[in-house]
């Protein structure tokens, strides 16, 4: 069940970039947004089914690809840090040498996931936190000395890497623009403000032979920018799904009507086949076929 964040006038503008694709969203969010809210929002914006594991990792020292490459705009090139030296390692030259040579330099500050398990990997030095307990205001702050890096990085050098489905590994890079990130509303709110969107991901769980538009060319419907549909999604009254040509956002009633129409078309097709009026190998009328016009 979706738990709305606390209302506030303090907002932050973030870019959500689908890694490996020219698909992105630019959204203003309340700083009170928890990572649980964050997860729900991403599932809605990219039309995923919320049927796989996920986590988010908060990184310092973020370097983005050069803006001269349109295909890589908003994509993180490098990020992370080494784990800090333990007290017992401080005066041990061999331990320090090993740390410098072999410790990975791309560790996050912490990892956020739905539940923190009691059993922890003894070789994983990354702190794990529960997503309902962490908010965006603990990551980016007006006073950069208080941000998640304790002032070690500017706000623009901090990013979040959200990973969904550890098999297919859909990855979203979340960053902010330096100098134009914080916004103050006149009236407190706890809802996102959708500013810009392009494309939609490839179809989730698609068969290898499914033909679909390039991700960047898929349409984003006007109702995506209407926050009432996100509210409906959070209440279980609206669906969001990436289809062959579009990000499809439907009410439950519209989705059910679409299903009934498909069943009726299939029934009529079987009758025509039985009467010899149509060949069984004629092109299938797929349930996931997109309509040309928005419902």
Walk me through the structure.
- Residues 255-295 are annotated as: Disordered.
- InterPro entries: MM3350-like_sf, Plasmid_pRiA4b_Orf3-like.
- Residues 276-295 have a biased composition (Acidic residues).
- Residues 255-275 have a biased composition (Basic and acidic residues).
- Residues 16-178 form the Plasmid pRiA4b Orf3-like domain.
- This protein is α+β, with helices and mostly antiparallel strands and 295 residues long.
- It has a domain at 8-198: Structural Genomics Hypothetical 15.5 Kd Protein In mrcA-pckA Intergenic Region, Chain A, CATH 3.10.290.
- Helices cover 18% and strands 25% of the residues.
- The chain has 4 helices and 13 strands.
- It has helices at 35-46, 93-102, 227-234, 252-274, and strands at residues 8-18, 23-30, 54-59, 63-64, 76-78, 110-113, 127-130, 159-164, 170-175, 182-189, 193-198, 238-242, 247-251.
- Strands 1, 2, 3, 6, 7, 8, 9, 10 and 11 form a 9-stranded mixed β-sheet that branches. A two-stranded antiparallel sheet has the order 4-5.
- Strand 8 and strand 9 form a beta hairpin.
- The longest helix has 23 residues, at 252-274.
- Residues 289-295 have low confidence and may be disordered.
